[in-house]
Amino acid sequence: MRLGISMSKGALTAVAVDGKKPIWAGSYSFDDDADLSAAMSELSNELPRHPSAVGLAVESDLCQVRVLNDVPPVKSKDLGRLISTQSPRWFLKNGDPLIAVASRSRSGQVFAAAIGSKFLASVTGAVVTAGLGVPRVSPATHVVGTAVDDGEWVRTVGAFFETVEVSEASVLSIRRGPQNGARQFVPRDFEGFGAGGDGEGAAIAWAVAIQRSDLVFESPDDRALRDKVHRRRIVAAIVVAVGLWLGAIALYGIRLNNVRDDATNRLTELQPEISEVLRLQSDVDRADQALDTMADAIAARSDDVVLLGLLTESLSDSVHLVSIRRSGANVTVAGVAPSAAAVVALLERFPRFELPKLVGPVTREVTATGVLERFGLTFLWRSDHD
Amino acid sequence: MTERERKSVLIGAVVIALGLGVRGVPVLTDKYRQLRTDVDQSQALLARAEALVGAEQSLRDGLSVRASDIVALAPLLIGSGSRAEGVAAIGASLQGWAASYGVTVARLESARDSSASGFTRLSVDMEMESDLEGLLLFIAHVERDGRLLSLEELSVENSGGEGDGTAVLRSNLRVSGWIMGGEGI
User: Fold this and answer.
1) Helical segments of A170-320, H only
2) CATH topology classification for A2-218
3) Which of A74, A177, A334, B85 is paired with A283 by a 20 to 30 Å CA distance?
4) Model confidence over B45-67: pLDDT tens digits?
5) What are the chain A neighbours of B119 within 8 Å (beta carbons)?
6) A260 with B50: Cβ contact below 8 A
7) By CA distance, what is A265's nearest residue in B?
């Protein structure tokens, strides 16, 4: 539940909302600060439950509001400080140091509001004393600007009518005087209350309850306190983030360690089975090697009967072999024939005699039957297994 | 604690934290990297070990099949006895065939052996004299024998009687056979 309070001279109107739905409303009057505290206490006692946040809109008869056109172009965050510093230039003084806030519209006008610091302290103190927490105190005129569509809106503030021109949630001008043709102020999405409460005050209270105005009166001390709290929150967030990061790293490390230990333990458990399997694997490998060895031996078994037979078949009767030597696939033949080259040609007809060639000198001998050539030749014996 | 003291403590704490960070983060990173590597390696090892253990039955089956194959090789071997017995068996066979085909054995002695994968190859060097027919029949018996006998080397020289069909052939043969035993198995 959120609570919105509209405060004008001598009167308080409060609205409690759940979401945007008003669930409670009340009006109170007061004459002085003591009465204000009493009214706040009464309001607090009558609330259905404790609010989670309190917004307080101060009407224009308790604070000063202006639309300024001659403000230097400073950054938004410095605008309020500039207006506060030069408040005597734009606001009336009454001996109570002024606290000013300001915001700039898109078209360049600056809405500014100022409130007496002592008055702000008494209002804030009354709300806090009533047990409602620290309120966000905003100028009601600005709340109006953020709560209506573009156009001119009029409402009663004390003894006069205040007409504001609104564009894109910014107040562009403020006029006080007799009622004109402007529309009566009704906040957007506001459906009224039925019985009870000052209508316009309740509308402002509802509007300030459902939205957080970005213009909040704060004393320098409050602002410093808020900044300090903000800084502490940032530091705390950093500390928590670093702590979480370190915690996550530690958890990750613990998890990795556990995973490694689990794997190591499992490997230890499997050790006997692994040894047995490795022994089996070794036996299988050796058996394969043995089988391969014998397969190679079978494939390499000699077939010299075929070699000798084929050699005899390939050569003509006029060729006489003196010696045959085979070592592995290399075969060396020595002999005599009418033509050594013809012997090579005869061997080349058989594919199992690979690369036949003469080696060494070929010598000629003259015999009774004619001229014979003594030769040596080599070739590769292509086994039937190749 | 005054504001000045608080600032001093804060600055000191920040400096210490930065120092620890600068020194500690690389060490921590290295330790984590090492730990990550250890975990990866141990998990890969575990996966391999579990795969191995899962393959135990198929290995046993495979070994059984191979053992049967090796047993089936027995008829090809000279025997499963000693090297001397193997050489003697080869020599006896060669002598027997030589006698059958009129081959004169001039020399018969064992040569260098070699072992591989559970089998030993025995070699016998033989010097002999014969005619061509005797030589061919002798070699045919060696190469067609049920045992895995083979001629490693062959050298034949015609020592006379060229062309008349009665030539005397002087031959040197290296005959090998296999026995079970030696390295492996």
Assistant:
1) 199-210, 220-299, 304-314
2) Nucleotidyltransferase; domain 5 (3.30.420)
3) B85
4) 999 999 988 989 999 999 999 99
5) 290, 293-294, 297
6) no
7) B46
